[in-house]
Request: fold
Amino acid sequence: MDLQLRGKTAFVAASTGGLGRAIAEALAAEGANVVITGRRAELAEQIAAGLPSAMGIELDVTDADSRVSAIEQAAASFGPIDILVINGPGPRPGTASEASADDVADAFTRLVAPGHDLVSRVLPGMRERGWGRIVAVGSSGIQSPIPNLAGSNTGRAALAGYLKTLAAEVAADGVTVNLVLPGRIATDRVAQLDAAQAERRGIDAAEAKRRSEQTIPAGRYGDPAEFGAVAAFLCGAQAAYITGVALRVDGGLVRTL
Reply:
């Protein structure tokens, strides 16, 4: 299936690894001009060099000045941004009962404020041109809160509420806004969570992963490429009538529709 993204410019936040990189690679395979971003400029440039039409830019998604600079550099090289992928690191693990006021503020700073800021910088142009795609990497925790990830559950749910509201406001302008919710995808972040779980339970990381896989109907962790393909589809021409959706890619982990 040709997603008709050739020549479109995609800005993918936090795309030097994990789910962000998987989305960037999927979009590049569809012919989009892809902006790879991350805290390590040299790594972003290295990844971009291996893609058909891409550039690497330093970006700390939690820093306002860094976001402004990255968007400006991307537009200067590839023109207006047609596709925005919101992604970034989540707050540290922790329980809701132990969360401090600073922890709650950190969840907002890491997850809500960057997404809003990036949207505000690219949305006017998308509406003016009558075409745009905004896709956020969320978490299944916004539908079924994940134990010991209170900060992530809180911040990502707030971002989802903002994006769902936005989706209805811009749909008539040809701009879609969706979230893709990963379950247990085999990334470094999930490996870190498995390690933390193993430490708490006094088991090794391999055993923690095995126990986690047993809770997933598919019986395995997802491949990042599987997740990237779903996000890329939501950016394609064929998905023009899909907006305001939170689509899980979780192997059946969350037992609700």
